[in-house]
Every structure is written in C-alpha cells, then in structure tokens.
Amino acid sequence: MPFLLSRRRRRPGVASALLLSCASYAAAKVRPTINSLSQIPFNADGRLSQHLLLYPAGDCASRIESQLNWDPHNRLVHSVEGEALELFFPDLADGGCSAVCVRLGTARDLAHALMPHHRYYPDSQPNFRENFFSPYCEKVESGFMQYYTERYGHLDFYWISHTGERVYQGEIKYGETNTKYINSYLGHTFHLVDPTTDEVVREHTVEFDHIAVAGKPPSLVEENPRSRAREILSTHESEWIRHGKIKRTFSPLGFTKGRLPDDMFASMGSFYYNNAKFAIPEESAPNYDKVFINWWESPVHFVQIPWGLRSKWQDRLRLLVETWTNVALENTDMYGMRQYEDGARLLTHVDRESTHAASLIVNVAQGNDLTRPWTVEVHDHADRLHEVVMSPGDVVYYESAACLHARNTPLAGGKYVNLFAHYRPVGDPDWYKKPNPPGTPEKLMDVGNCWLEGEADAMSQGAVVCDDPRVGPHLSPTMFAPKSGDDLFKWWEAVSEGPPMRKVENVAQVEAEMCRDCERPVGENSSHVPVNRIPTPPKATPLTYDEL
Questions:
Q1: Are the C-beta atoms of 360 and 261 separated by less than 8 Å?
Q2: Beta bridge partners of 366
Q3: Residue 504: what pLDDT?
Q4: Whole-angstrom Cα distance, residue 402 to residue 251?
Q5: 101 pairs with which residues across the strands?
Q6: Tally of CB atoms within 10 A around 327
Q7: Do the beta carbons of residue 449 and residue 394 sit within 8 Å?
Q8: Are 138 and 22 a contacting pair, CB within 8 Å?
Q9: What is the dihedral angle through the alpha carbons of 429, 430, 432, 434, rounded to the nearest 10 degrees?
C-alpha cells in the first residue's frame, strides 16, 4: 500500500494511520477497447475531462489488466487499437507492450504527447503497478498555502482517511514562504481548519499536481497610483549601465525564437489549465518598491509549481538552452508561472549576472480576448530593438544578463502566462567577467542598411529588411536603437498607450522629423527609414525624438 509522505514532521503515533487503500479491490476486469481519439471525453475547452490509462489491446492488455483489479480515481482505463494505437504508441513494435497515463486537462491536440515518466517501459519497470502506475500515474505533488489568517497565524492541516478520520499533518502558516508540500495520491482529501473555531476553511480533494490556497492576499494595485517616473528613469539608467558590463556572449544576436517539444507543452499547458483557479497576487511583485513590473497599476498573479515537477521541467528546458548555446549549463533559477493582467508592463532591464547567463521564456497560455499581440522586446548585442510575437508553446532564448529585454507596451485585454528558466556555464558564477572562449559565435554588430518594407505594425513578420539577413524577422518596425538609459525611458513613455500602430505614409517626412544619427541621406524619394529613429506614437502627427 502507498504511504502519504509529508516533508514536515508528523505527530508521533500517526504513521500507522496513514496506511490506506487506493480503491476497493475486486476481481480483474476486462476494460473496453477504443480505436479513435473521438471516443475519449474532452470538455468544451478541448481539454481532457478525466485522467486516462491506455495500453495496447491483446496480450499486453491481459498482462496489465491482471494487475489492475480496482477502479482508479477519476480515470478512464482502455485498451487501444487501430488509429488510437498509432497515435499513442507510434514507435511500439508489433506485439510490444507499454502504457501511458494522460493527465486531466491535457489539450486534445496534445493528448498523445507524453512526458517520459508518464510512459510505461516493461524492461525497466517489471511490476506495472509498483514501478509505474502508482508512482507516476496516481502519485502527485500537493502544496498548500494560506492567506486566511492574520500574518502570524496558522491553520491546522489534516488528511481525511478513507474511514473519515482526521489525521493531523501539521500547521500551515501565513504566506507563500510557508507553503507545505507533500506527496499524495489522486482522490485523497485534506482539510485546512481554523484552530480557534474548528471551522473547515478549505476542503480539498486531490485531482492533479497542485498548490491549493486558502484565503487570498491583499491586492497591491493602488486606487490612485502615484507617479513613479523618477524611479523608472533611474532604473533605466542603472540597467543601461549594467548591460554594458557583461563580457561573455553565446550567440550572434543574443536571442532567438523557438518552440517547446509537444510533451513539455502538454505538461505545462495542462498544469496551468488545472491550476489557474489557484492563481494569487504575487507577493514579491513590489520587490522593495522596485518598478520593473507596474504592480501598482495592474495585478500580477502567480501560479506556483511543485518542486518535483519544476525540477523535471527545468532539466528538460536546460537541454534546449544547451543546444542553442552549445555550452554545458547548470540550473540556477526557474520562475513562474506568472500571470499578467490587462495593462501590465515590464520595463527594460537585464537579469542577475551570476546566475542568468542563458535563459528562456515560455509562453504557457494567453487569454482569448487579447486585442493585440504583447511582444517581448529584446535588444540584440548592437542594442537594436526586436519585438517578438509569441504564441502559446513558443519559447524565446535570450542572454538575459547581457541583452536588455522588456514588455513596455501595456497588455491589451485578457491575461498572458509565462514561465522563465535560467542557467549558467557549469560551475562558473563569474562567467560574465571573462572573455569569450574560442569557438564562440561572433556578435552580429553591423547589418548594413535597413529599411521598412512591410507594414509599420507588422511585428515579428520581417517588416524590416537589412543588407545582412542574419538580423532575422523580428527587428522592430520602429528600428529603435537606444544610446542611453534616458533613451529607454523615452521609449517607455512613447509606448505608454500602446505600440506605434499607424502606418507610415510619408517616409521622408517622418525621417526628417525623427531621424537621429541617420546612416544615409533622406529625401523625397527615399524608401528607407533610419535605424535610430524613435517610434511614431498612435497620434495624427508624429512627434520628434526630443518631444518624446
């Protein structure tokens, strides 16, 4: 029988009470066979409405069903053949045996994409139930935090046995830093109880990996926000200086765009879908009144990730970043899932030098009501601005301590959910003080002349063409290239109501009004927009650079 495992010390004498039965035992039963994805239940959002256990029909089904003599909690169990067999077991040899556990909340188009630990390998897992099904399908990570009490209060935490008995699991104190983590099993029920009144303030039945919350922290959004322009200008000046101190680089531009493997996107997507209801205001958003996120204007929410799942994801993501950098890396930090809301802005900055050498952003989810793309802004090694449009499942690799990055334009409608992972060269916290080792790609500094061929609001679509095509398709149609922290501040002001969406109809006029350090003469017949012009805000008459 499995045990309920807690990372906190339990009261003496209760260990024996934690022995439990996952389900009622009965004679082994033959499960129905399906042959199509259409026979699997998905909800109105196109998400799996129950957990699945699938395995090939025939001899494999007989072997597995002989060990599956109970009805697992909220899980459909089927043997598969035909189209379903090809979908879930594309590499299985004829007569081979395997099984997959598919998580509740998985998207229909990714149902077949399984993380390796959710796939059964008989050669290395001889006992289906003990080596695979119990530890990787039924066992889940559970976290509990509370904001129900006053800051120094606590709730009592109980597991409810199959006989209805309360089994004490310890105290849960106030706040994120006091989150209690345990390993539990699908179908287990827990109570968070007010020790003064004995009131059950939250009852929770485990249905997936989660961090459940009782109560809610206070909102940080100010009713009448004060101006923070002075702090924002100072921050931009500081970040400009910081980004120039990094010596080592890893790639020609300092960033690139990619895509998550399907199994990782399925795992992250289902976790967020299942846990979005547990999103809470981010405690650390103010960060001692720093202004990187406009938390005083727009709420920033956080969906916490249990440690074991976080570790699996970070290890897999590291392989992607190592492929991009061609450098052996070690894990340093992983942050998220952060849920931005309408009006959110993230000002231009760089990340912590010792730990954030090579990083990536994962866009996990977006609201359907976004009225425009919320581009991630990355300045390359020559400080040219690139505006990258991301879709759920996309990743942006970036040298986050060296390359300035931001989302200065306000998020327009809905929500936007990201995950961040960070790495550095193995065993080298001083990597940023050292010159590039032999074999490092040369930085792409001079790309020749650049001009606008596409629409001025066409982000991430190759609207800007340069003599050197290696600059890629994400160069901002504004072709903004700051020269100082003050320039970054002016950009922050210029896009405060949104990106420059007006089509440039008279390029020569705009050049004359907005050009600074132009690389070529401008004139009536010019079709080129200077590299260093500031963007045109969405107003009838374009502003000059000094007017921003």
A1: no
A2: 416
A3: 31
A4: 11
A5: 53
A6: 21
A7: no
A8: yes
A9: -140
CA distances from 120 to 74, 96, 129, 130, 365 (A): 20, 11, 10, 11, 29
Rounded Cα distance between 240 and 348, Å, is: 9
Over residues 435-459, mean pLDDT: 94
One-letter amino acid at 524 equals E
Q: How many CB atoms lie within 10 A of CB 372?
A: 16
C-alpha pair distances (Å), 354 with each of 77, 244, 254, 400, 401: 48, 15, 17, 11, 8
First CA to last CA distance, the chain: 68
Burial tier of 63 (Cβ tally within 10 Å: 0-12, 13-18, 19+): middle
Q: Tens digits of per-residue pLDDT, 317-331?
A: 999 999 999 999 999
Model confidence band, residue 240 (pLDDT cutoffs 50, 70, 90):
very high
Q: Which of 144, 53, 123, 114 is nearest to 312 (CA)?
A: 114
Q: How far apart are CA 272 and CA 139, in angstroms?
A: 18
- Sign of torsion, CA 516 522 523 527? negative
Cα 292 to Cα 35: distance, rounded to the nearest angstrom: 51
Is pLDDT of 288 > 70? no
pLDDT band with cut points at 50, 70 and 90 for residue 518: very low
Q: How many residues does the chain have?
A: 548
Which residues are within 8 A (CB) of 548 and not within 5 positions of it... i.e. 6 or more apart? 490, 491, 493, 494, 534, 537
Q: How far apart are CA 197 and CA 177, in angstroms?
A: 25
Is residue 448 predicted with pLDDT exceeding 90? yes
Q: What is the pLDDT of residue 286?
A: 60
Phi, psi of 531 (to 5 degrees): -65, -35
**Smallest Cα–Cα separation from 170: which of 4, 397, 409?**
4
Per-residue pLDDT, 334: 96
Strand pairing category for 139-147 and 210-215: parallel
Residue partners of 384: CB distance under 8 A and separation at least 6? 447, 471, 475, 476, 479, 480, 481, 531
CA distances from 499 to 192, 277, 537, 545 (A): 46, 31, 7, 16
Whole-model pTM: value is 0.86
- The yes-or-no verdict on residue 3 having pLDDT over 60 is no
Query: How confident is the model at residue 523, as a pLDDT?
Result: 32
348 and 181 in contact (C-beta within 8 Å)?
no
Handedness of CA 272, 273, 275, 281 (dihedral sign): positive
Distance separating alpha carbons of residues 281 and 284, to the nearest angstrom: 9
Beta pairing partners, 145: 213
Instruction: Work out whether strand 119-120 and strand 99-102 pair parallel, antiparallel, or are unpaired.
Output: antiparallel
* Residue (of 125, 129, 101, 104) closest to 115 by Cα position: 101
The beta-strand segments (E) located in 197-349 are 200-205, 210-215, 255-259, 280-281, 300-302, 329-341, 346-349
